[in-house]
């Protein structure tokens, strides 16, 4: 662990009670986090059903609510081509079941030396072309598939219990994993930070979902780099998104794995993360729902610079860093850097806190509302998300519901 020597970024911030209280008052309530695509439940079945895709063509199956019924004039249709079924008093009319609906490729995408465009090895068609293999049905995994449930399970920040269990309550006198000794508990508490800033870089998995490939965690007050490594994907990858955002290449990943300087999947990231973060730690992010979602992490105290910034339209981190701090980032042609982005997020949040501290009465009222944890403070938090007025709030809420990829905002990933 070390402190970055980049002259663009500040050193330590004053961890005074007033500063910490102000930062705490800017954390968002459950209603705001949920509305901004943060996950607050560990494993709801609705999350899995909303992400079911055909394992061949990767088309989302339950993408939208069921469309309203439309009355058809059966005399206008050829009865030999139709089949009607009734279920729950609803009638579905489908065309010939033999008509192919699933199109997919069986090869890989490569870029030949004599062509600037990527093609499929199975048919030599350009990447993005319609699949060369046709099937009359989709291949859909069951919603109760254990592997699918495990992949989409989220984990809240744990609170270790300072208890040593009695021998009779454990197997053969061994301590259970649920508890740690009081000495270990006190030692671990020393490493828990008051606040951290984080950023993740993401690639695209074979199922087209974002997959974490790099993570950076820094101590918000000291600027100490706590975690900064590549992350081995937990499933096959379609693209590393090197030039379009992640800055991580296939070669970088292979070298990191060869040298042993990497985290093996999101589970390893969380295991290391929880050494520094407790439920009382404030997590500072920018468009952090993308980061926490790929980490499969639920945390109660989050402050998101994109939410705090008062704007009708979400703004990228580079714009906020330039406007608030005069710092210019993400200028490399090689893509983003999670360390640079985490440091920039920290700087932007510091500027926002200093502005907020100029109005102590506002801080006190927000802090009181946050601690009450009632429906009223959720409303205050919505106001704190910087919607300019009620009409804007409705527009933003509707736009969130229209996002195609559920809890992953691909646009904000590219602008983060």
UniProtKB/TrEMBL annotation:
SUPFAM superfamilies, per database record: Ribonuclease H-like
Any one Gene Ontology BP term: rRNA processing
One Gene Ontology CC term in the entry: nucleus
Bias (Acidic residues) ranges: 405-416
Keywords, sorted A to Z: Exonuclease, Hydrolase, Nuclease, rRNA processing
Record-level Gene Ontology MF annotations: exonuclease activity; nucleic acid binding
Sequence ranges assigned to domain Exonuclease in this UniProt record: 194-358
InterPro entries: REXO1/3/4-like (IPR047021), Ribonucl_H (IPR013520), RNaseH-like_sf (IPR012337), RNaseH_sf (IPR036397)
TM annotation in the entry: none
Gene3D superfamilies given in the database record: Ribonuclease H-like superfamily/Ribonuclease H (3.30.420.10)
Keyword rRNA processing: yes
Domain of life (superkingdom): Eukaryota
Residue numbers spanned by region Disordered: 388-416
Function, as annotated: Exoribonuclease involved in ribosome biosynthesis. Involved in the processing of ITS1, the internal transcribed spacer localized between the 18S and 5.8S rRNAs.
Protein's name according to its UniProt entry: Exonuclease domain-containing protein
Organism encoding this protein: Cladophialophora chaetospira
